[in-house]
Specification:
Helix 1 packs across helix 2. By secondary structure, the chain is an alpha+beta fold. Strands 1-2-3-4 form a four-stranded mixed sheet. It contains five helices and four strands. 14% of the residues are buried. Keywords: Acyltransferase, Transferase. This is GNAT family N-acetyltransferase.
């Protein structure tokens, strides 16, 4: 895996500045990972943190802007869900505004999900958190 290429994919999406070394760590520590290529170029990716029984967490799903709306994101999520089957719960959090995409897979909004982010204020401003 070219971790610099994956880092560039997140920047292009745009899903933030994710350092190559950090991506190597998080993807290596994930139970499931999916990488999609077109003509040798990385076009999409995603991963699942999972314990094998109780909880699977789908995260870091990313698709090149030129490939968004083509079904590639759906294929990546379908594959990650397939690998995650058998867990008692499958969780994800999405970029604000992308929730309708994930509802198509059967995901529903959680009423009790809470988070602590490295930069709480920034995530409040981006719509990931609510202080209510």
């Amino acid at each position: 895996m070219d971790w610099d290429e994956l880092s560039a994919l997140y920047s292009a999406a745009p899903l933030g500045d994710k350092k190559a070394a950090n991506l190597k760590t998080v993807f290596s520590n994930s139970m499931f990972k999916c990488f999609a290529y077109e003509n040798g170029r990385l076009a999409g990716a995603g991963r699942v943190l999972a314990d094998g029984v109780d909880c699977a967490y789908i995260c870091d799903v990313v698709v090149l802007p030129s490939h968004q709306g083509t079904g590639l994101g759906k294929a990546i999520v379908d594959q990650l869900l397939e690998w995650s089957r058998g867990h008692k719960k499958i969780i994800l959090y999405s970029v604000p505004g992308k929730e309708p995409f994930y509802r198509k897979f059967g995901f529903l909004r959680m009423k009790t999900a809470m988070a602590i982010f490295e930069n709480q204020q920034q995530q409040l401003e981006r719509g990931y958190l609510s202080a209510d």
